[in-house]
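Bug: token stream looks shifted between consecutive jobs. Job 1:
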Amino acid sequence: MAYLLNLLSFLLVVTLFSHISASDSLYLVTFVPCNANSTCPQGNPANISQTFALNGTLNGNVTASVGEKITFILRTDVPEDPFIVCQLSKEPDFCSGIGFNNQFNTPINSTNHTTSVIFTKPGIYYYGSLKNPGMGGRITVFASLNTKSGSITATNTGVHNQFSTTMLLITIISLFGGIISN
């Protein structure tokens, strides 16, 4: 009986962690060259010819759901173009010159720095450079997970691997506890 109870507890924990990891999205941010009037987003200054890319996609638009946590990991140094997530901007500015009250995160500009945002309301938000226009994209946040449509795909590998390790530990403890109680 104790073994069955441990097994049910384990299944409950697996379900809980699966739900948590499904609501986290991870994007790798790079700063890549682009061609003016071609691959550069609209508004990108011609003298810069670089822009942010998410998971290798130039000017990728992102979709999310209310309550979803989105984490951005900067994979390059961008001292002149801090990466930021904002609201109440316009295209093609993508956060350029946005005031402090409309910023969702502290700007990041160094390799492996991360920032996370949890959206609490549906709407249109942006990511991009705090200093230069045309270096970003749109984040559309829906009220429900079911209304999300095509956009670039997030990678959940970091979150998934962290939970996998936790799940392995819980499995071992549950099984060991079942053996001892018998």
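Job 2, same session, no restart:
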Amino acid sequence: MAVHVEFRTLSAENVDAFNSLRLSPDQYHAMAYPPMATWYGFFQPPSTHFNRIFWDTCLDKPVGMVQISLNTNGEGEHFIERFLIDERYQRKGYGRACINLIFAAVRNDLPGLKKGIKLS
């Protein structure tokens, strides 16, 4: 099955679908309830955070999310704070497709990147 994902921003039109994202029970030790863990970042100034929902364009549903803290102090490194693929879409190629979207954004869209991106 081919995976077709794109970035979308959180909006009134997709907030309910976003709130349906979930992890498997054994993954919650590493991250708080996904929607609650991301609300803070989604309402931070765009100059400090890059927050996106991974949206499957064929299913017309969210399959995950990413939150990247932008380093604005001139060091040229950004930090992936949160990366999530919904438990219903894990092991189906979405993780790889979403990582590729992140790499494209890092190369083309994120300001001030000089050194690279860090993972937690």
